[in-house]
Write a structure and sequence with these properties.
Radius of gyration of chain B: 19 Å
Mean pLDDT of chain B: 90
CATH superfamily of chain A: P-loop containing nucleotide triphosphate hydrolases
CATH architecture of chain A: 3-Layer(aba) Sandwich
Strand content of chain A: 25-35%
Number of strands of chain B: 0
Oligomer: heterodimer
Distance between the termini of chain B: 51 Å
Helix content of chain B: over 70%
Low-confidence stretches of chain A: none
Order of helices and strands of chain B: HHHHHHHHHHHHHHH
Number of helices of chain B: 15
CATH class of chain A: Alpha Beta
Shape of chain B: globular
Shape of chain A: globular
Number of domains of chain A: 1
Helix content of chain A: 25-40%
Number of helices of chain A: 11
CATH superfamily of chain B: ABC transporter involved in vitamin B12 uptake, BtuC
Largest interface: A-B, 32 and 25 residues
Strand order of the largest sheet of chain A: 6-7-8-3-9-10
Distance between the termini of chain A: 33 Å
Number of domains of chain B: 1
Mean pLDDT of chain A: 90
Order of helices and strands of chain A: EEEHEEHEHHHHEHEHEEHHH
Radius of gyration of chain A: 18 Å
Largest sheet of chain A: 6 strands, mixed
Largest sheet of chain B: none
Structural class of chain B: mainly alpha
Chain lengths: 246, 290
């Protein structure tokens, strides 16, 4: 069964087309990496799918119904540097944000919500930092707080925007562990990913993107040197070439 | 002088004015917390300055100093100024700070011209109109203070109801949108709260300096705490404190405008916070460098 069906998405920015002809479908319980060079529109794609930015045209179906009807099934982990970490709040409060839909608008968090938030923090190894001001966390710890918030959302489909960028080894492990667990629970995960060396290890499906989709499918068949050359237009580095080929 | 002082203290009007300044200061501090975090300090200053022509137009329309009419005028031109700022940012190559600078000076200039014109030509009783520039608490009559008091309480209640939603919409608007939280609507609510507090505050504090009463209390509070609810509450208390002390001095010393006095008090509080604040004060950093 398809968790996600994306048809013909086109996005314009300042009258310029930054993304077009994007159609693909994502089977339930898969881990998909969205890969491409800088400026390829990877983040733009997930933001357009999530209706965070306007799209010129295209449709998104979640479990065969419109995105709006199924919005509650979606979880989102934004890029870490998109928020102000100097904001006066602590780790637990950030995780509680994942529960806001269940808490209800204009209502206060209950004891049960706080317990769940702490369980989520515990799962990513951050319980000891629950009351820590967020600016005092390392980059990796901040990313893990965002993961805990996504956990607290208890979604069926997760979108993550470059979760691995600038994190320590422990956080990387935590993210992979979580993705595998989600997959085992039948959840679907899409990740904007930068590091070509780890694509084959982490994802069972890949979308190669450079303003238009270059190739999409199972990692084994799609993630080839030929396709990468087409995606990166020859701008692929020696080092990356070497590691992908081995 | 001391006679003047004791007469004022015992008068019901004075007690009303102090209550008004207390609630106005509290509301400013609390709403200002979100204005500061949303990085809209400059916009709020533009909104305040843009309220001045509305006061003049409100007077010219009815040729009398009818406070609700003046404040309605102030609301409309303040919103108009904000709208023009958005328009300039969207349709020109100007940055936000340039757009805000243009709107502040144009609207304030028009306001001053209108008030001067009224001063020289209008026939109705226009005494006290100039006080909208720097504020004069002593010029408030009971009815004005009641309007300020009730409005301030309503604005604080709205802020408290939206607290959790403001927090997420300002910290992480994309995530909030994903949760189905009406981020644009909340931005609109915050803007109306700013206009509301600015408009009810201008007679007491004046258009030139009311933004300082919005921004300096939360800025000071941030030096003492890392928690948003405490920051908002403390900011309210500091705003109320400076409102009361500033108004007290201004009301007891003849011809001393209220706005500048309040700003002096809140600036002193800011200086103390900057130096000795328990979370980020300079002295704390010296004592225990992180």
């Amino acid at each position: 069964m398809n968790a996600l069906e994306i048809t013909n998405i086109k996005v314009n920015y300042h009258k310029q087309t930054v993304l077009e002809n994007v159609s693909f479908h994502v089977p339930e319980g898969s881990l998909t990496g969205i890969v491409g060079p800088n400026g390829a529109g990877k983040s733009t794609l997930i933001k357009a799918v999530l209706e965070l930015i306007p799209k010129h045209s295209g449709a998104v179906k979640v479990y065969e119904q419109s995105f709006r009807q199924q919005k509650h099934l979606i979880g989102y982990v934004p890029q870490r540097n998109e928020v102000d970490w100097d904001f006066p709040t602590n780790a637990r409060d950030i995780v509680l944000m994942g529960r806001y839909r269940k808490i209800g608008f204009f209502k206060r968090a209950k004891k049960r919500d706080i317990e769940i938030a702490d369980q989520c923090l515990d799962k990513v190894g951050m319980l000891d930092f629950a009351t820590r001001q967020i600016s005092q966390l390392s980059g990796g710890q901040q990313q893990r707080v965002f993961l805990a918030r996504a956990l607290a959302q208890d979604a069926s489909i997760y979108f993550m925007d470059e979760p691995f960028s600038g994190v320590d080894a422990a956080t990387e492990k935590a993210i992979i562990h979580l993705m595998k667990e989600w997959k085992n629970e039948g959840k679907t995960v899409l990740v904007v990913h930068h590091d070509l060396q780890t694509v084959e290890e982490y994802f069972d499906r890949v979308l190669l993107l450079n303003k238009v989709p270059i190739e999409y499918g199972e990692t084994q068949t799609v993630f080839t040197m030929d396709n990468l050359e087409r995606t990166y237009g020859g701008k692929i580095s020696f080092l990356e070439r070497a590691t992908v080929l081995t | 002088m001391s006679d003047y002082f004791s007469i004022f203290l015992s008068s019901a009007n004075f007690r009303w004015v102090i209550t008004g300044s207390l609630l106005l200061g509290f509301a400013c501090g609390m709403i200002g917390t979100f204005v500061l975090l949303k990085k809209q300090s400059l916009i709020s200053d533009a909104m305040a300055h843009a309220a001045l022509p509305g006061v003049g137009i409100g007077f010219l329309l009815f040729n009398e100093k009818n406070l609700p009419v003046l404040l309605l005028g102030a609301t409309l031109t303040s919103l108009l100024g904000t709208y023009f700022i958005q328009l300039i940012i969207k349709h020109s190559k100007l940055d936000a700070d340039a757009a805000i600078g243009v709107i502040i000076s144009v609207f304030f200039g028009v306001g001053i011209v209108l008030l001067t014109f009224i001063q020289q030509h209008a026939t109705g009783n226009h005494a006290g109109l100039k006080e909208f520039i720097f504020g004069q608490a002593a010029s408030l009559v009971n009815r004005d203070v009641q309007l300020i008091t009730v409005s301030a309480i309503v604005l604080v209640l709205i802020t408290m109801v939206c607290f959790k939603e403001f927090k997420i919409a300002i910290f992480d608007p994309d995530f909030a949108k994903g949760l189905g939280i009406p981020v644009s609507f909340l931005n609109g609510v915050l803007m109306l709260l700013i206009v509301g507090i600015v408009v009810i505050g201008i007679q007491m504090v004046g258009v030139v300096l009311i933004a300082a009463l919005l921004i300096t209390p939360p800025l000071s509070a941030r030096y003492w705490t890392d928690e948003l609810p405490i920051m908002a509450g403390l900011s309210g208390v500091l705003g109320a404190l400076s409102g009361v002390i500033g108004t007290w001095f201004s009301a007891t010393i003849p011809n001393l405008p209220t706005g500048p006095m309040i700003v002096l008090v809140i600036s002193a509080i800011f200086l103390i916070s900057l130096l000795f604040g328990s979370k980020r004060g300079i002295m704390m950093k010296v004592v225990q460098p992180s």
